[in-house]
Design a protein that fits this description.
With 112 residues, this protein is mainly α. The chain is built from three helices and no strands. Helix 1 packs antiparallel against helix 2 (32-63) and helix 2 runs antiparallel to helix 3. The termini are far apart.
């Protein structure tokens, strides 16, 4: 698993998104917290794309070898990307919002 075409598809997909978000951060169009959330989304999107291509191709091959393999890998890659991005963004939001709340609470305790 995660070798060959699916590996490169995931790396290219996640890498292109990360490059866009890095440029936005450098240009001041995005803050660090949002960048961190997008980074978790990009990583999980890349993993979802890789897994979706692999498992979609396997399912497509089981249903209809040849054409099913191609169709399954395309549909699996799209679904894997979307699910991976959704999970990654929500995880990132939970992680970084929780971290900010802890820091704010500690600051409030120290300052008051």
């Amino acid at each position: 698993m995660f070798r060959g075409g699916s590996l490169w598809a995931g790396i290219i997909s996640g890498g292109m998104q990360q490059l866009q978000h890095t440029k936005a951060l450098q240009n001041g169009a995005m803050d660090r917290k949002t960048y961190a959330v997008h980074t978790t989304g990009n990583v999980s999107s890349a993993l979802g794309t890789m897994a979706g291509i692999e498992y979609g191709a396997m399912l497509g091959s089981a249903v209809m070898p040849g054409i099913g393999t191609i169709a399954g890998s395309i549909v699996g890659g799209i679904v894997g990307d979307r699910v991976g991005r959704y999970v990654g963004h929500n995880t990132g939001r939970m992680m970084f919002n929780t971290a900010n709340q802890v820091v704010d609470t500690v600051n409030d305790q120290i300052l008051h």
